[in-house]
């Protein structure tokens, strides 16, 4: 695969996006930013988890069971963050035909699905001592389960076609259709009567959580975002290198034929 950028100069925004479509440029840039992003993510996540699990106070009502929050809540945020990233990559694919957007979307799917599965599992563990049941079909839990199935559907769909581009296109359409589930997840506790409590952190008001519990939670969440970005970047780098190796191997076979 050539390192020459052949993107068409149709629109300024498209031209700027296509600057990073060149595989060689992407590998060089991502190779520089990946180590610090991964280290920052690891450091923040470990610091937040140690603080939250061992040094933050227990809740007056939930006692030590509240410590599941330091895994469950960031996992829930990252599950939605990952799907929003998947939708953005899908837009870049469908609108601007960005060559790396399809590869990024393919790699976002498994990472987002893993965080969603972690959210569901820890939510079940938290629900048992609080609600007396491992699972209840309330609006929040059901909408997150739908999100998990959307991730799995995207993972399967992009690999279901012999024509790779058709798979990318079908996956992008599914990702955009599934975006409607994100506000349902966010506002389900406000729209319906659910067992989940209202959000403790909002953009319009002060947090209702004590700072000694809020800060470790935010550390884990921010560290998780860096970790998410590092995982997707590393997987996309591997996909780009695999595609280049495949192209070189095919060229050599054709040359010898």
Describe the structure.
The structure is a single chain. The protein is an all-alpha fold. It has one domain: Four Helix Bundle (Hemerythrin (Met), subunit A). The protein contains eight helices and no strands. Helix 2 runs antiparallel to helix 8, helix 3 (69-96) crosses helix 8 and helix 4 runs antiparallel to helix 8. The longest helix has 46 residues, at 211-256. The radius of gyration is 21 Å and the shape is globular.
Q: Count of DSSP helices? A: 8
**What number of domains?**
1
**Rg (CA only):** 21 Å
Distance between the termini: 20 Å
Nearest-integer average pLDDT: 87
CATH top level label:
Mainly Alpha
Main sheet? none
How many DSSP E strands? Answer: 0
Q: How does the overall form come out from the CA principal axes?
A: globular
Q: From the coordinates shown, what is the CATH architecture?
A: Up-down Bundle
CATH topological fold name: Four Helix Bundle (Hemerythrin (Met), subunit A)
Which residue ranges are poorly predicted, with pLDDT under 50 across at least 5 consecutive positions?
Answer: 1-11
Assembly type of the shown chains? single chain
**H and E order:** HHHHHHHH
What's the gist of this structure?
With 257 residues, the protein is mainly alpha-helical. The protein has eight helices and no strands.
